[in-house]
Amino acid sequence: MPPSWLAKQKKAELIELGSEAGLRLDDGMRRDEMVEQLDKHLQTNSTRLGGNQTFDSYYGTRRTPFKPRDESIAPVTSDDAGARSVVRARGMRASQVKSEYDDDLPSAPTSRSNALAMTTSPTIAASRTPATANIIQRRRSSLPPSPSLVANEIEHVEARAYAGLNDLYSLSGIPETIDWIREACSSLAAVHLVILLQESLSLQRQLVPWLYAFDTPAFHPLGIASQAISIPDVFVLLTPAFWKPTLLWSSTSIFVPLLVSFFFNLTVHTVRRHGARVQVVHNEYDPMTFNIAKLLVSLAVYGGGALQGYVSQDTAATVLESQYGGLSGLLMGAYVGGITSIWQAVQR
């Protein structure tokens, strides 16, 4: 059974206690599970967390209470009490004398010559006693606590630092951003968008030249050399050399496949509702038909098919030269899109 002190805490308080102890508790856990895990963690790390004031109420309930000695075991008479008081007084006097003697001496004699020198010169020893006591007191105050306490304190600092880093990571918004990017990329539209974006950038790199603009200043103390800065020549947008390859690629990779996938949409189903026929459309454009149309049109235009005489061969060659792998690169994009479409249909 969990301790009553932990059982009285709320979920938010249990999470804060777990963060203080270096244990991370999720909000989705039940309160009983939080109490059980925190109880096990506090029992396991009792040495490290026993000195933390936050858990005084927890460890205070688990300490063994002091049990007074039963005085009815052996009755004490007045004579015995007097003898014991005399012995106790003598013992206390002896211990006081011994402690004063130890404090006065700088260290125990390590050799017979040192002991002889100390006994033969009591005046010198008496004159050095106050300074030696001060030195010993200063040395004792400068000594660190026991190694176990130092190790426990280091572990406690590390646990708090780790908890602080976790809180900073959560407050920075990075987990939410990563989840949003993952959700956006885990879709069929994202796969097709990445493929088309890669093909488009490859084509623009081939068509738009970059012109020299200026040099960055050099900073020799840091070893930074001057760098040439180039900018794209936007005036190429006014020439047919840019628009012919761009329109050809857009037609074969976007517009014609979209038109075909809109009419040949295999995701459309006709059902009857209240005596009327209603079309149910899963996708406005069939992704599988889109990739099949892109594959066939690319083969007909760039692969020397039936449309070779209707398209300028120079323009088609410019498009193929801009793509990674030429015609194989365009077809590979259609293959990847088709496989992704099949996988989505299988999951649905």
From TrEMBL:
Asked whether the UniProt record includes Flavoprotein among its keywords, one would answer no
What keywords is this UniProt entry annotated with? Membrane, Transmembrane, Transmembrane helix
> Which parts of the chain span the membrane according to its record?
247-271, 292-311, 323-346
For the region Disordered, what residue ranges are annotated?
46-114
Compositionally biased residues, Polar residues: 46-56
Question: Which GO CC annotations does the UniProt entry carry?
Answer: membrane
The name on file for this protein is SAP domain-containing protein
Q: What is the lineage of its organism?
A: Eukaryota, Fungi, Dikarya, Ascomycota, Pezizomycotina
